[in-house]
Amino acid sequence: MRLIYYTILFLGIALALLVIANHQARDHVTEIVFLDIGQGDAILIQRGTTQILVDGGPDAGVVAKLGKYMPFWDRAIEMVILSHAHSDHYAGLIDVFDRFQVKQFVWSGAEEEAEDFEVFLEMLAAENCSVQLASKDRDFRLGEIYLDVLFPLIPDQFLDQSEENLNNTSIVIKVSSPEKSVLLTGDAEIPVEEELLRYPVYVSAEILKAGHHGSKTSSSELFISAVDPVEVVFCAGEGNKFNHPSSQVVDRFQFLDISTITLFESGDVTRPL
Of 98, 120, 235, 248, which has the highest C-beta tally within 10 A? Predict the structure, then answer.
């Protein structure tokens, strides 16, 4: 009996040391993970114990996903970015605030008139973290991770305003390293893409997260050509009622010889930065 106990103890310690060694070996590797969390967005950018979470998906499932990629002893997330105030982007962040210490929060200031969003704002206030409004002239850097905000154009563009289409309050961010760049577009639709095309040189990126889960309201041919990505990721849930991604949009990317990835088909997608 004692032999069995010590064997289990030894195996447990060995496993813990192996997990720690694996995370330490990745301390100098920057990765972006598009999390398969159903119909919604949740994107983790990580280097060692530094994490940036862009959106949290529709429910608490994001917490389990974070547990898969973050070191088990790391209970802090350096930055959370909410692209815009729709529940398939913010609802999971309620549980993130409950389980992790969030050090900095970035959003556009546009609010959804919904009870769930009021709960979200209460959790944000209780977190007592630094809160920033995103804008084109306010970029961020965490270690070797560079975040260039391309939209909104000014800090208070959407603050305390009632917007008919919250999709077009989405923060658009270019995540860059010396080797690669990724363009994250939230649910931004063609009117925002047209704003971005005023400065087309800034939108180019190797990887594009398709706007609005691959809806026909986003991903115009002009915008795709300006970004000129190698691959595009559609953050969509299987059997979703919107039929995202649109077959028309998928065909548009494939016609331009751009590799397409849909999360409900591939599962989580990890790429080095």
Answer: 235
CB count within 10 Å of CB 153 equals 13
Domain borders along the chain are: 2-272
Over the chain, what is the mean pLDDT?
A: 90
| The pLDDT of residue 105 is above 90 | yes
What string of DSSP letters covers the chain?
Answer: -HHHHHHHHHHHHHHHHHHHHHHHHTTT-EEEEE---SSS--EEEEETTEEEEE---SSTHHHHHHHHHS-TT--EESEEE--SS-HHHHHHHHHHHHHSEE-EEEE------SHHHHHHHHHHHHHT-EEEE-BTTB-EEETTEEEEEEESSSTTSSTT---S-GGGG--EEEEE-SS-EEEE-TT--HHHHHHHTTSGGGT--SEEE-GGGG-TTS--HHHHHHH--SEEEE---TT-TT-PSPHHHHHHHHHTT-EEEEHHHH-SEEEE-
pLDDT at 201 over 90: no
CATH architecture of 2-272: 4-Layer Sandwich (3.60)
